[in-house]
Design brief:
Radius of gyration: 18 Å
CATH superfamily of the largest domain: Flavodoxin domain
Order of helices and strands: EHEEHEHHEHHEHEEHEH
Bound molecules: flavin mononucleotide, iron/sulfur cluster
Number of domains: 2
Number of helices: 9
CATH architecture of the largest domain: 3-Layer(aba) Sandwich
Strand content: 15-25%
Number of strands: 9
Shape: globular
């Protein structure tokens, strides 16, 4: 059985993970897929003969909850593939992210056999133009097929970190601090009906309802899930608005279909 675990803020990595799972299933593989969330119990690789981990790239690194989650995996010697999902794909700036995650997984006994990067649309700042977003999404099925064929055929692939990437990834320490503070810049409008969607869907459990009001703690990872996903569009970012696409980000609108 192949166990797939993924972290996703705005759905890009989830889409890639589910697409991979579907392709492996079509090849007769038995798949178990899990979200990486801090509320998860200890993750076990028992009964699996292969492990795939997927994460978005955040500031030339991976989001801090992914590191925290990996530390909780029960150690097991197992064939492992790492897939990073980012807006830049295999550019020097993103190459170092894989180095750190590889080192930690190796300590858990994982035998890293395959590493790759999948390019998906940018989910922050001012986003991408519609045409660019669509052309990136058109390339995804081909890339997923390539990854599945490579893994099935035991192709070994290692992403070599480039010096520029290693230097830039040092900056990510500031992003980790910034991201924890990020939700403190959120303001909730009167249209919030306390539906609880953000509370249930925040991957770090950073959102609670206190005294009838939404409260953000210091466990944000700047994934942007709550601000784009709130059904009432009740969340806005007052202190760091430059990080957020003005009209939101909805992957499934670009794909022209519903999630699942
Ligand atoms: C805080 C933040 C930092 C990001 N940093 C990078 C980066 O360094 N390199 C890159 O190519 N994309 C970067 N991105 C874009 C995301 O990696 C990309 O859009 C990804 O597909 C989002 O995946 P998700 O929807 O599963 O969260 C960043 C996005 C966010 C929110
Ligand atoms: S998802 Fe939006 S409407 Fe629902 S509780 Fe959160 S902020 Fe309020
Ligand atoms: S508070 Fe919002 S942006 Fe921060 S981690 Fe939770 S869902 Fe993501």
């Amino acid at each position: 059985m192949i166990k797939i675990a993924y972290f996703s803020g705005t759905g890009n990595t989830e889409y890639v993970a589910k697409f991979l799972a579907k392709k492996f299933e079509e090849q007769g593989e038995n798949i178990e897929i899990s979200k990486i969330e801090l509320k998860n119990e200890k993750f076990s690789l028992e009964n699996a003969n292969m492990f795939l981990i997927l994460s978005p790239v955040h500031s030339f690194d991976i989001p801090w909850p992914v590191y925290k989650w990996i530390k909780n995996i029960e150690s097991k010697e197992i064939k492992t593939s790492i897939i990073l999902v980012s807006a830049g794909g295999y550019i020097p700036e993103n190459s170092a992210a894989i180095r750190k995650i590889r080192t930690i997984l190796k300590k858990k006994g994982c035998n890293i056999v395959y590493e790759d990067m999948v390019k998906m649309p940018l989910n922050c700042f001012s986003g991408m133009k519609n045409g660019e977003t669509k052309s990136i999404l058109n390339e995804v099925p081909k890339k997923i097929e390539e990854v599945v064929v490579n893994i099935k055929n035991n192709v070994k692939k290692e992403i070599k970190p480039l010096t520029k990437g290693i230097i830039l990834s040092k900056i990510s320490i500031f992003e980790k601090i910034f991201s924890r503070l990020f939700a403190k810049g959120y303001v909730i409008s009167e249209s919030c009906n306390l539906c609880n969607w953000c509370v249930e869907n925040c991957p770090t459990g950073n959102i609670t309802i206190k005294n009838g009001k939404i409260h953000f703690d210091l466990k944000c990872t700047l994934c942007l899930k709550c601000i784009y996903g709130c059904p009432k569009k009740a969340i806005s970012q007052k202190i760091f608005p430059f990080m957020v696409i003005k009209n939101g980000y909805d992957l499934y609108r670009f794909l022209g279909k519903n999630a699942d």
